[in-house]
Specification:
Elements lengths: L1 E2 L2 H9 L6 E2 L7 H4 L3
Parallel strand pairs: 1-2
Length: 36
């Protein structure tokens, strides 16, 4: 799951969602979404 901020990551983890990353206000591009 992709969320906006660090507190969103913490809240999600506390709710049981383990695969969460935060963009921290960075503009999302297609390069961010590519899988290596």
């Amino acid at each position: 799951m992709i969320v906006e901020g660090n507190l969103d990551v913490i809240s999600s983890h506390q709710a049981g969602v383990k695969n969460v990353v935060a963009t921290s206000g960075t503009a999302m591009t297609t390069q961010h979404l590519e899988v290596a």
